Amino acid sequence: MAKRFRTIVLHVGDMKTGSTSIQAALAGGNVPDVGVSLAYPGSGLNHNIMKGPLTTRAAGRRPRLEEFRETVASHSADLCVISAELLSLGDPQILREVFEAYLADLADDYVVLHYFRPHYEAVVSRYAEDIKIGRATDTFEDHVHLCIDSGLYHHAARIEQWQGVFGARYRYRPMIRAELARHDVVADFFTTILGPLPDSWQPPATINESLPPEALEILRLLQRHTTELPQEFRSTLGREFARLHSEVCGKRPTARLPVPAAMARLMEAAFEADAARMDKAYFGGRPLYLPALQRSVETAEPDCATAPPQHSGPEIAELLSRLVAHVAAHTDARALGFAMRDSRTSRLARGLSG
User: Fold this and answer.
1) What is the sign of the dihedral through the CA atoms of 132, 135, 138 and 144?
2) In what order do the strands lie in the sheet with 107-116?
3) Could you read off the pLDDT of 95-130 as tens digits, one per residue?
4) pTM for this one?
5) Most buried pick, 68, 155, 200, 285, via CB within 10 A?
6) What sign has the CA pseudo-torsion 287, 292, 294, 298?
7) Do residues 133 and 235 touch, judged by C-beta distance below 8 A?
8) How far apart are CA 43 and CA 59, in angstroms?
9) What is the DSSP string of 186-215?
10) Nearest Cα to Cα of residue 131 among 120, 118, 122, 143
C-alpha cells in the first residue's frame, strides 16, 4: 500500500494532561490552518479503545487491529494523529512492536508525543479523576501510597524507558502552564506538531476539569454504592454528574483538594529525587519540576486545609434529581420501576425495612 501520510503522531497522554481538550479539538476539526492537512481517524473522541490491542502481544490474526488499520488507511493527509492517553499505562516496547507491525508502514515516519504533569499535581488530579469515573472510592491517603508504589509517577524513569524504546522519535513536553505555547495545552500540542500557529486561531475552552472538593466528596459517596455495576456505567455516571454539577452550581472558584501535610511530605520524599532528575536530565537544568513539587508541598499546611464551601440543599436535590432523570431516559424506565418494586416487595417479605 502507498504511504498515506508524511507522519503519524502517536499522542500517548499522560493521564490528566489536557488530553480530552486536545482530542475534542481534533474530533471537532478545530485545527489551526497552517497549510498542513491533518487526519484524525475514527468517529469517536479518542482512540483509547485501542489501548488493549496496541499494548498486548498475541499470536495469530488480530481483527481489531486489522480493522483499525483499515480505518486509518482510509484517510490521506500530511499528518495523522492517533490519540489515546491510556497508552501511557502500557509497556512502550510492546506498543512499538505492535504499532510498527500494523500501522507504521502507512507513513514515511512517526513520532510519539508525551506530556508530563508535575508529580504532586499528577497524583492529586488523578485521584479526582478516579473518583469521578468510579475507578476508585478509597481515601486520598490510600491513593497516595498506591501512586508511589505504582512507578507511574516517577516521570524521569518513565522518560528514560520510553526514550530507550523510541529513540529520537520520542518527544516529551512539560504540562506546566508557563512552559506551554500560549500557556495552553491545545495550542502547545498543535504548535509541537504543526509549527507556529496563526494569531487568528483561538484555543478552545478547557474540558474535563476536576470537580471542586465538595462535589468530589458527594460523588465519592455516590460511587461507593455502584461498585458492583459495570465500569462503563460508573464512568458515564461520574461524567454526567460533573456536567450537571457545572450546569446546576455554575463555575465555582478554583479550589485545591485539601491535602494533609503528612501526605504532602510523603509525596515530596517519594518524588524529590525524580523531580530533580527531570530538571537536570531532560530540561537542561532549568528549575521546573522540583520547584513545582516544593511549592505544592508548601501549600499543604494544616491551616490551609479549610473545609470547602458546602452546597445548599436545593442544589444537591436538583443535581441528583436531574442525574436520576438522565439515567432513566437512557434505560427502560418502566422495567426499571418494576424491578425496583419487586426488590422492595422481596425486602418486605423478608421482614426488612421497606
Assistant:
1) negative
2) 38-39, 77-83, 5-11, 107-116, 170-174
3) 999 999 999 999 999 999 999 999 999 999 999 889
4) 0.85
5) 155
6) positive
7) yes
8) 28
9) HHHHHHHHH-SPPTT--PPPP-SPPPPHHH
10) 143
